[in-house]
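U., I forgot to send this yesterday:
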Amino acid sequence: MKLKKIIGPGIAAASIALAAWGGVRLYRVSTATPEATVPTTAVKRGDVTFAVYARGEFQGGNSIMLTAPMAGGSDMSITSLRAPGELVKTGDTVAEFDTTEQLYKLKEAEADLAEAEQKVIQAQAQMQAKEEEDIYLLIKARSDLKQAQLEARKNPVVSAIQAKQNDLAVQGAQATLDQLTRDLANRKATSQAGVAIQDAVVAKSKVQIETAKRNIEMMTLRAPRDGYVNIQFNTNTNMMYMGMILPMLQVGDTIRAGMGVVQLPDMKNWEASARIAEADRGHLALHQPVAITAVALPEHPYHGKISDLGGTAGAMWDRRFECKISVDDPTPELRPGMTANIVITAETLKSVLWIPAQALFESDGRTFVYARTPEGGFATADVKLVRRSESQVVITGANEGQPVALARPDQKKDKDKEKKGGSAAQAISK
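Result:
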């Protein structure tokens, strides 16, 4: 009985100790960080072909931009708009704008014209009436002068006083006739000027009518040739900020005069457009041959040439430029917006040393690699960069077959230390 009392607690204590040791061992195994190795590659010699790969889309070339008409300084509202990608024929209506204001101006100009024409008639009638009145006054003045002259012939046989009165009557009649003659010329010029003013008002009203009709006609955008509709983005907003995605124009939007509404590419001249990384700009040139594949038509390869290289734009970490490629052999199966896989073969360098792009490092004007040493470590070795692509770099100053690191060895060690330190801290905190 005493022996059992001694052995029982001992066995229990041993079991507890064994379980504790196993738990610690299991925790160490589960939390242990495997020793990481630095990935390496070897410097290789061979032919390196520099090709630029990009993804873009097909679109018609030689585009024509249809803009909002220059019909006044106010904004215009879109009342009708074709669907994006819709095919149109020459003369088809592509977009229409609200003509309420121009119709009001047309009606107003027509009313002004009718009023001006009546005023012309009135002015002409008044001029004619005045002319008849002036003719009567002129005949009367001439008759009065003739009568006075006949009375003056009696002067030799009448008294001196009567003769003097007759002479004065002749002079007065002559003065009245002279004054009336001058006044008639002035009144006629005034009447003609009044009629001319009303004629000018009529002409002005006609011009306003023609302008309103022309503006109403301009409010309808028609296709100048066959093509498909490419709706433009709505830039008529005061709430623009960097990175903002602008919506496409739609019915009900208000736009400014002269603003682009629809782009009408030519269906007979196709092109592919892609945004290419800035690093590949040096490999490209105008008229360079390009191989193009439509994702929707993989059985039909297309060929083309670079037709335009645009300016570089975008964030500092993602600078890209627009590259347009004219398609030499389009087919009727092509549709605008189709995705295009683009391969541009720049040049081939024969028998050169090359490494993956991530194995080349730059710092303080140096270009170097991390070469493996005989002791198993890594040391920097300066090399000269010849050409670069996104995936490969051609270099000189290295030995063929030399192992080089694909990542900075010192950074790898630092990361391992951080991981180990973090694990310890987590274990302590628990």
